[in-house]
Design goal:
The structure holds 2 protein chains of 2 kinds.
Chain A (H helix, E strand, L loop, with lengths): L1 H36 L1 H13 L12 H15 L18
Chain B lengths: L1 E5 L13 H9 L10 E5 H4 L1 H4 L1 H5 L15 H4 L1 H21 L4 H20 L5 H11 L7 H10 L14 E2 L1 H38 L5 H27 L5 E2 L3 H19 L4 H22 L11 H14 L13 H15 L9 H26 L5 H14 L1 H11 L3 H28 L4 H11 L3 H11 L1 H33 L9 H7 L3 H54 L3 H7 L4 H28 L1 H4 L3
Antiparallel strand pairs in B: 1-2, 3-4
Helix pairs in contact in B: 6-12, 6-15, 6-24, 7-8, 9-24, 10-11, 12-13, 13-14, 13-24, 14-24, 15-24, 16-17, 16-20, 16-22, 16-26, 17-18, 17-19, 17-22, 17-26, 18-19, 18-22, 19-21, 20-21, 20-22, 20-26, 21-22, 22-24
Classes of the chains: A mainly alpha, B mainly alpha.
Chain lengths: 96, 634
């Protein structure tokens, strides 16, 4: 009985070790190699570092850039750039 | 097919001792109509539900069961009320710290920035360098930067980011910090030099446009483009400068204090609810340690590529332990999933500010507040009528998760309709997988087809689930896409309040009752998940405060004060504890039952496909047909 329990415990411990190893290999061996081969993914990581974003963040209050984005959006409506002669010479409307 | 069975049929079920309500609850897994004490009408398939879904019948420790009546003592014996009391203790503390007697300089700085932006808006038909600088100055005013705010933030600080050494998440010595700062100093200097060059080019382009009295459209566009380049270079320079200011960190003293503080905080409610306080406190140590490990893993540098944050790691690590070595018995008294989630949701209510919905004007309201409910309801109906989902709660949680804003919406909806922890886990898992795909694929596609940044940003903001992933995908395209995407998502985040309330009411009045029977007001009150009232009260109170303060002071004192400085951090911890508890109490095999037939996957894919089409159509109509002049100025 004791041997059986010990065997079960050892089996569970082994399963734990294997699971940790699989996760480690996935995130720290395979993952970085995938990133290294995909420039788009590298750029994706770079912009997150630049703007202090983490893609796993949950809510807008967690994302610092959301605050900046809101200020920018509100400013566009509150202080819409019109120029000296309103409507006569606005930026040409290429929305980007 | 409807089968009518007598309650006597259950009497031989001696394996479910206790009251008849308990027997019914054990058998059917969800709270039933109160008249079922005599006879019940149920789909025949439900009679076999226990065989088909043993988890539904036996593992309902995290489903709240109403007793069909309310007592005064509920106020101090039910976890829904304790979630409200504890949540509001934190909220009131936040109000005392940040809202009372704000420094006068906040108002002065805001007024100065606004006057510059107003003058610049009159001077040029595009956002000038001075306009942007004033906007940035306004964004720097934060109540949480006060000495008290810094002390609170330090106490609630989570394990930080790391690359190769996990210990960096908890402790960074002065030597290590200095070495890191020195290593980044050169990059910071280079980035600043590039930003200065870009700034000079922007100044020259703007001066040329000004010399032509801003009447030459090509010069205006040239200046706009150069200013955009300067903004991008300045963002890189700021990021590099921040890295060159690395500071020593030591969380080994604050984390044990935080653990003790939070443990005792929740223990108050446990005592009144008649549960074992010593057992809870002992188990809480284990839950907190796993939560810290999850936070540490969420902060690992490569996680940004996959969108796996703290909450996901809490479930992963918890399930890993539970399904291999097994969750230790001494931890189990602290696996109070509902208690942690509901308290966190009351705090989340304070972050649901209704004045946010006008942040980007009418286009934002249409993209986030018209499309989203249509998609949510359509997906739910599709799940019930076409896919014939067996679990309505799973259907609505996936629908809300997919259409509103991912994990946070899933948590609120699951709690409002009393979904099982496995259903919440499955919904979040689906969301994580599709978010990881969409946050890479969508910006790549938008770039490939040369879609305008504003349209692309609005499209991603309305469709990608997780808020962080939306901002990241927007940043992939550029600053304008980032701003639009993040703002649309923020407006959509606010929809959580309406969704949670609507689902709670619908469940009380339509789902948890017998077909054809009307439900009285008192009955609705008995069944209504009371913590939702705390969630709504927090949202309404803070929306009113935010509205009265105005968008600028509201941002300084609420967003960057009470919320960011206290309640959001506490909410983050509570959700992390809840997800850790979910992971530690979840069995892989039980989870598999809910995925039977792949219906959840089909539901998600179909709902998201509809969402993609409808959001893109609405974004195009609103930003490019109805309001093109505003779009051009964003």
């Amino acid at each position: 009985m004791r041997q059986s329990l010990q065997h079960t415990f050892m089996g569970r411990l082994a399963a734990f070790g294997v699971s940790v190893a699989v996760l480690w290999a996935l995130f720290f061996v395979v993952g970085p190699r995938v990133v290294a081969h995909l420039p788009a993914l590298q750029h994706y990581g770079e912009v997150q570092d630049i703007y202090g974003i983490r893609s796993g963040q949950l809510y807008y209050t967690d994302v610092e850039m959301s605050q900046q984005a809101e200020i920018n959006s509100r400013s566009t409506w509150r202080f819409t750039p019109t120029g000296p002669a309103s409507g006569a010479s606005g930026a040409t409307g290429t929305a980007d | 097919m409807i089968t009518r069975v007598s309650i006597c049929a259950f009497l031989p079920l001696v394996q479910y001792p206790g009251s008849i309500e308990n027997v019914l609850h054990e058998v059917f897994g969800t709270p039933l109509d109160y008249e079922v004490k005599h006879t019940i009408a149920l789909p025949a398939v439900a009679a076999n539900r226990k065989e088909e879904h043993p988890s539904m019948a036996t593992n309902d420790s995290n489903v709240v069961v109403d007793q069909g009546q309310s007592r005064l003592s509920d106020l101090w014996t039910k976890e829904d009320y304790w979630a409200i009391w504890l949540g509001f203790i934190i909220i009131i503390a936040g109000i005392c710290i940040y809202l009372l007697n704000p420094p006068a300089e906040y108002g002065e700085k805001i007024a100065k920035a606004n006057s510059v932006m107003a003058a610049e808006a009159q001077r040029a038909p595009f956002k000038t360098i001075a306009y942007y600088k004033a906007q940035d100055d306004k964004a720097k005013v934060k109540a949480m930067d006060s000495p008290t705010g810094k002390a609170v933030s330090a106490f609630l600080k989570k394990p930080g980011g790391w690359s190769s050494n996990p210990l960096d998440s908890f402790v960074v010595s002065k030597e290590a910090a200095d070495a890191k700062a020195a290593a980044n100093a050169e990059k910071a200097v280079e980035a600043k030099a590039k930003a200065d060059v870009a700034m000079a080019a922007a100044v020259a382009a703007e001066a040329s446009a000004a010399d032509a009295a801003f009447a030459d459209a090509s010069l205006n566009d040239g200046a706009t483009a150069k200013i955009a380049e300067w903004r991008a270079a300045a963002a890189k320079a700021k990021s590099a400068a921040d890295k060159a200011k690395s500071k020593p960190v030591n969380l080994l003293t604050s984390l044990p204090l935080l653990m003790a503080g939070m443990g005792l905080f929740f223990a108050i409610g446990m005592k009144f609810m008649g549960k074992s306080v010593p057992g809870f406190l002992l188990g809480f140590v284990g839950v907190f340690v796993v939560a810290c490990l999850a936070t540490m893993m969420g902060g690992q540098a490569t996680m940004k590529y996959w969108g796996i944050g703290t909450e996901a790691w809490a479930i992963i690590i918890g399930m890993l332990i539970a399904n291999t070595v097994g969750t230790p018995k001494w931890i189990k008294p602290a696996l109070e999933v509902e208690y942690f989630i509901k308290t966190g949701l009351v705090l989340l209510g304070a972050e649901v500010l209704f004045d946010k919905i006008i942040a980007i004007g009418i286009p934002g309201i249409f993209v986030a507040w018209v499309v989203t409910p249509i998609v949510l309801i359509s997906t739910f109906i599709f799940g019930q009528r076409i896919l014939k989902m067996e679990s309505k709660t799973l259907n609505v949680v996936i629908s809300a998760d997919m259409s509103v804003c991912g994990t946070s919406a899933a948590i609120a909806t699951a709690a409002a309709c009393r979904a099982k922890k496995e259903e919440l886990t499955l919904s979040i898992g689906l969301s994580l997988v599709f978010t990881a795909i969409m946050m890479i694929a969508m910006p790549a596609f938008i770039k490939a087809v040369d879609m305008p940044q504003i349209l692309g940003g609005a499209w991603m903001g309305g469709t990608i689930d997780a808020t962080g992933a939306v901002a990241a995908a927007g940043a992939f395209l550029g600053e304008k896409a980032l701003y639009v995407a993040a703002t649309i998502k923020m407006i959509q985040n606010v929809l959580i309040g309406v969704t949670a309330f609507g689902v709670a009411v619908y469940w009380c009045t339509r789902v948890e009752c017998r077909e054809g029977h009307s439900v009285g007001v008192s009955e609705i009150w008995h069944r209504f998940p009371k913590f939702v009232l705390g969630f709504l009260a927090a949202s309404i109170i803070f929306s009113l405060i935010s509205g009265s303060l105005g968008p600028d002071m509201g941002k300084v004192l609420l967003d960057q004060g009470v919320l960011k400085g206290l309640t959001a951090s506490a909410r983050g911890w509570f959700f992390c504890l809840a997800f850790t508890a979910i992971g530690l109490a979840t069995n892989f095999r039980e989870l598999a039952h809910y995925f039977k037939g792949g219906k959840p996957l089909i539901l998600y894919v179909c709902g998201q496909s509809f969402n993609l089409v409808l959001t893109l159509t609405m974004a195009y109509i609103m930003f490019y047909i109805v309001f093109p002049e505003i779009t051009a100025k964003i």
